[in-house]
Every structure is written in structure tokens, then in C-alpha cells.
Amino acid sequence: MQRLSLLRDQVTCWRDIEARTRDALELLELVDVEADEGLLGEIERDADELAAELGKLEFQLMFSGAHDVKDAILAIHAGAGGTDSQDWSEMLLRMYLRWAESRNYKAQIVDSLSGDEAGLKRVMVSIEGRFAYGYLRSERGVHRLVRLSPFDANHRRHTSFALVEVWPDILGDIEIEIRPDDLEVDVFSASGPGGQHMQKNATAVRITHKPTHIVVSCQSERSQTQNREIAMKVLGVRLYELELERQSAERDELKGDHVEAGWGNQIRSYVLHPYKMAKDLRTGYEVGTPEAVLDGNLDGFMEAYLRHKVGDQ
């Protein structure tokens, strides 16, 4: 039923474009160009809107992957660079949250581990929206930041790395058998800034899958039941990915090869000093305003990656 609903929506969009184009052409045949300037201007505006919508629909044809239309689960891990890299991970989290907001996607932090002094050692985010995975799969890999370090007393230039992983949220499409006897469930108090808003009750949940030693946790909700549901969802996705690794080469399509978050492995560089630039090393796409990119303006990079992938096929 979900697939039927998706296909119906896609067909409806194309048929609506077709009907509106036909109506505009028929109206244009009836227009006296010299006498009906106002009506002609309205037709031109409609034509511009149709062209823009058609461009978006044509671009969506690049989402040819089996899971591109689905929600996504994104994880960020601090790499080489110490406190600077942990701060870099938090900057990337903000970038993706702003990007999701710009697309009216729903983003929720599922789990996180704070850095020793600042930033985040790791964070996992659930992002819900049509084609969320299709767009975000372009972000898999090592991201490199060059800047004057705010954590260096001498204010020297530092290079930081963080690894971004992305999975499609495919749990609703598959059946993963998770036996209760295989689970070790721990509950604990959610970490927070303290004060009156800090959770006093043990609502956070950590689940260990004993056969695979996979550990997932969630502390984003106030209810232990809700945290357990989200943790089980993430566990199911991780187990599905593990099964794919054993059965087929589809791992490369869903997650990409594992790489260390350090020198020589970056997919994209963000340079804030001594000059300003953000450049994707896979496609060659670059902009001179890295601040805008870090504010969530990622569409140019994502579209360049998708066009690049289509060209390679």
C-alpha cells in the first residue's frame, strides 16, 4: 500500500504538469497578442512556473536507487583532530539540521555523546521526508575542515575530520527477527545540561544485541517506552545492514566502504582560512561561501553528486 501510494503521487504530479501545459497552449492559441497583453503575461508566468516544476520532476528521475525515496538515518563521528574535530562534528550536525529544516523534513536526534571539552564525539539523527536518503547518500564519507582553531591559545590553523554515515530507513519494508533472549536492555538517566530541565528518572535506553555485539541507545524522548521503540528501530536497521554485508555487494549502495576519518580520505573540504572555499573532491563542485554551506545550503553539492553518479552509470 505504501508503494501504491508513492506511485500514485508520482503519476499525479506528471499528469498535473501535462494538463496544465495543455490548458496553457490552448489558451495561447486564443489570445490576441496585441490586445491581451495582461493575459499573455499571465500565460508567461504560468509557463515559467511549469518549467520550474518540470525541472524538479526531471531531477527526481535521478533518484534511481531502490531506497532513495525513503527516510534516512545519519550518523556523524569525530575523527582526527581532537577537540577541534568534536566541535566540527557539532558544526556538521547543525548544517544537516538546517538543511532538513529548509526542506520541511522532520529531524530528530536519536543518540549523541558529548565531547570532552566541546562538541560531539558522535551523534545519530533520524531524518524523515520524501527522498531524504536519496539526497543524503551524497554526504557519506569524510568531511575536512580547515580553520583558525578557537581551542588553540596561539590561534593557529588546524585541520579537523569527521566521518558521516547514512542509511536508508528500510525497517518498515523488511522482516528482521529479533529474539527477546538476544537482547540486553539497560536503562539510565538521560544526560543533559543539568538544572531544572535535567531528567531525574531513568528514561534513556541502551540495547545490546548479544549475538552481534551491536549496541544502540536513545535518550531523545522523555518516555522510556518511546526511547526503547526508537532504539529498536535503529537496531533493526543495523541488523539489516549486517545481513546485506553478508549476502551481497549492496553494502556499497547503502553505506559505502568504511574509511578512517583522517588525511587522504576526505570527500569534501571546507576551508575558512587562509581563504574561503567549500569543494567536493568527487565532483569538482565548489563555492566560495563555505559559511552558507555550513548554514545548510547543500543542494548544489547534492545535485552535482547525483548528476555525477548518473554520468558514471
Word description of this protein:
The chain has 313 residues and is α+β, with helices and mostly antiparallel strands. It has 3 domains: 2-60; 72-173 and 257-312, Alpha-Beta Plaits; 180-247, 2-Layer Sandwich (Double Stranded RNA Binding Domain), CATH 3.30.160.20. Helix content is 40%, strand content 24%. The chain is built from 8 helices and 11 strands. The strands form 2 sheets. It has an 8-stranded mixed beta sheet, with helices on both faces. A hairpin with a 5-residue loop joins strand 2 and strand 3. Helix 1 packs antiparallel against helix 2. The longest helix has 29 residues, at 2-30. The radius of gyration is 23 Å and the shape is globular. It starts with a helix and ends with a helix. Mean pLDDT is 84; it is low at 193-199.
Short summary:
The protein is an alpha+beta fold and 313 residues long. It has eight helices and eleven strands. The chain folds into three domains: 2-60; 72-173 and 257-312, Alpha-Beta Plaits (2-Layer Sandwich); 180-247, 2-Layer Sandwich (Double Stranded RNA Binding Domain).
Features of this protein?
single chain; 313 residues; alpha+beta; Alpha-Beta Plaits; Double Stranded RNA Binding Domain; 3 domains; 8-stranded mixed sheet
Q: What sort of overall outline do the alpha carbons produce when their principal axes are compared?
A: globular
- The string of secondary-structure elements, in order, is HHEHEEHEEEEEHHEEEHH
The number of helical segments is 8
Q: What's the alpha carbon Rg, rounded to whole Å?
A: 23 Å
